[in-house]
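Hi R.,

Here's the chain you asked about this morning:
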Amino acid sequence: MLAKQKSTSQLGFYSTFEEQLSHGHPLYILANRIDWKIFDEAFKKHYSASQGAPAKPIRLMVSLLILKQLRNLSDESVVEQWAENAYYQYFGGEQLFSVKPPCVATELVEFRKRIGEEGVELIFKESIRINGKDADDDNLSGDTTVQEKNITYPTDDKLYKKIIVKCQKIAAEENIELRQSYKFTVKKHSTIQRFKKNKGGFAKARKASKKIKTIAGRLVREIERKLEPDDASKYAMDVSLFKKVLAQKRSDSNKTYSLHEPEVKCYTKGKEHKKFEFGSKASFLITQNTGVVVGALNFSDNVHDSKTLPAAIQQYERLMKKEPKNIFLDRGYRGAKMINNTTLHTPKPDKNITATKRKRHSRRAAIEPVIGHLKQDYRMARNYLKGTVGDAINVMLAASAINFKRMMNKWKEQLAIWALKFLQLFNFYCNNIFNRTLKITF
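And the predicted structure, written out as tokens:
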């Protein structure tokens, strides 16, 4: 059910909550620049008008999603800090300071599921609008990166042991009596694997790994055999995943690297410090002159960089209501030179290259630090959201946060410049008055 509207009249005896805050604070300015009504109109379709308990205000939930990415916090931390920060509360639409948490952290999970990718893209669109003319540039830079998932480094032994644990859990839930739990057997073989670098230990460790795989296969077959027909459909996807992991080989494609995130892919980007990355591919477009992120799209499949451009351009057209004129890319995008009316530029040996085009290619490298900030400061270094939908949501929220932060930094600079000019003007008048006073005195 939709939340009830709050009164915005004066709530304090002497002053309002708004008057007690610094009007020059970046979060205060951002709260008054964002058009919150578009979120109320777009998301009210996800709520019942009359049934159920009143929900949390839509502005509050959207503001928590923005603050979470903006401050690089977890769901639990942003809810906890909201109760301690007056600017967070004003940003969320509160009229009085509250000492209670705004909601339970899991409500953010449900809200993300409720609005989905379409709703998060609306937040991203608003972050572009906030940047005004800075986002209106026909020349773009493009690049891709890997958004790593929150999984451990995958090995066959880890997957087999997890299959064993999950099979034992299914047996406990469905009251299935296993012929053998293999608890102490697996522990003994795991100890042997720890000392594989000792003399003669490698052969023993290989035999132990093979034994663990055999045990995992036995448990999967026993669980499948002893499950009731009604329960078999309940665990059909899990059993199918277990079989796929046990059957896959080193040279197979589309391998499974995680049981709780089976969509994860392996990427090799040629990095010296990190040969393999496990997650999904993210594509970004930024304006060349100002660095505003105007395109952020996630791909769950392991596609070539050049194949990501059609979808990225479609998203740009959807958000900006126009086509980009030029996109400058690195050599990984070699292939097509035109997509619709957009020209794609990749560096190549050219004696007749113009100075402007050379500058554009050099400027393309500015997207690299932007991606670095997205990862280190805006929660893209490791994605904790579930599934492929979580991958797409995290990419767009990170892009939204860096756009909002860009304007907040810009407002800080403007305030500093205005303060400096005011001090210079004040100093000028003081000196003039003092000089006149001296003349009158003497």
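The longest helix spans residues 387-441.

Let me know if you need anything else.
M.
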